[in-house]
Amino acid sequence: MSSTGLHVPAQPVWVRWLPAFYVAGLLILEPITPVQWPVSFLLIALPVIAAFSHGPAVVAAVTVFAVGFEALLAGTPCCAGRSVGYIGERHYVASYISTGLVGILGTILAASRVRRQRTLATVRSVAETAQRVLLRPVPRRLGRVSIETLYLSAAAEARIGGDLYEAVSTAYGVRLLIGDVRGKGLVAVETAATMLGAFREAAHDEPDLAGVARRVERSMTRMAEQLEGNESEAAERFVTAVFAEIPDQEPVVRLVNCGHPPPLHIGPGGVTELEPTDPSPPINIGVMAGDGYHVDVSPFHPGDQLLLYTDGVTETRDSGGAFYPLLERVRSWDPVPPQNLLAHLHQDLMAFSGGSLDDDTAALAAFRLRAEPSAGPVDAPR
């Protein structure tokens, strides 16, 4: 933790102790090598070794130590077999000067490394804060629907992704959104923020799910029009998405799939992909594609579960380059509540990919709770 309160990742322990190991190795070699092979000259590299894991003050101190230790070894008969006169011998003087110069360069290198680490820590902090503001916590229960979410960042340093999700309770039932913005960075964040803001308003105002998609489309189009003259940036602002609606009184789920991977329906009859019968265009392309948003209706009874996810899940690769077989994996798992389902998915993705994800990943699981007239709502099975 730096003085600014930002978390700067610490170097591995073995890296921090590497200068000490290096000196210990030289002490072992020096007595057993011939006098004409002064191993102490290798101390010239010590400041650079220290610069990999320590700050400039430590590197400067190590440089002074290295010069003094070179002089000590040069004039210590008991260890190196040389007389005190070697201390001022021209080759050793050249070694002292070289060590000092390398120490200056090492100090500069250490200062530069520390600055980069602090800058990266700042960027990471801003990225994490932006992601938390963008993807605010979703309630774990909305009406008769239990909800859990999962977000996994890719391995790239401080990269902010465009994966998004949201769930709101409305007069028309619980409405869900999951989407994936094309591109990364601030463009993706701005696009995702616009889409989420539009959805949160439209979900309450529009009686029809297709109307929600059209309302979000109009908001995205207005935002894109503000980028006139920057066609390359505007072209990156389309979003694949799935809008879902779980009515309170009907055992169905309504879906509008806008070019997004199909959700999974998990129920007593097994696991199925809810492919759209008439795919809708991605958001911000609807105007060019005719603005045709089609609603599909599927059975969704108490005890059924819906899994929405981004393509970061299905495009995860193993060491051989094979894609993650989501449908096969989920079919092989026992029925579990949303929290356990996403925890299992998280563990399986990390194991499949060897702990390194190539893209951001988001998932949302919605479970329709069973209701008993006499006892009230019954939670998902544990």
Specify Rg, calculated over alpha carbons: 31 Å
Q: Assembly type of the shown chains?
A: single chain
Strand order of the largest sheet: 1-2-11-10-7-8
The biggest beta sheet, please?
Answer: 6 strands, antiparallel
| Average residue-wise pLDDT | 83
Structural class: alpha+beta
Instruction: Tell me the strand percentage band.
Output: 15-25%
Number of strands: 13
* Amino-to-carboxy terminus distance: 40 Å
The amount of helix comes to: 40-55%
Residue stretches low in confidence (pLDDT < 50, at least 5 long) are: 1-5, 373-382
Total of DSSP H or I helical runs spanning 4+ residues:
13
Overall spatial form: elongated
Write down the secondary-structure element order.
Answer: HHHHHHEEEEHHHEEEEHEEHHHEEE
Topology (SSEs and partners):
Blueprint: H1 13-16, H2 18-29, H3 46-51, H4 56-74, H5 77-80, H6 90-134, E1 141-142, E2 145-152, E3 163-170, E4 173-181, H7 185-205, H8 209-225, H9 231-235, E5 239-246, E6 252-258, E7 264-267, E8 270-273, H10 286-289, E9 296-299, E10 305-309, H11 311-314, H12 326-332, H13 338-353, E11 361-368, E12 370-372, E13 376-378
Antiparallel strand pairs: 1-2, 2-11, 3-4, 4-5, 5-6, 6-9, 7-8, 7-10, 10-11, 12-13
Helix pairs in contact: 4-6, 7-8
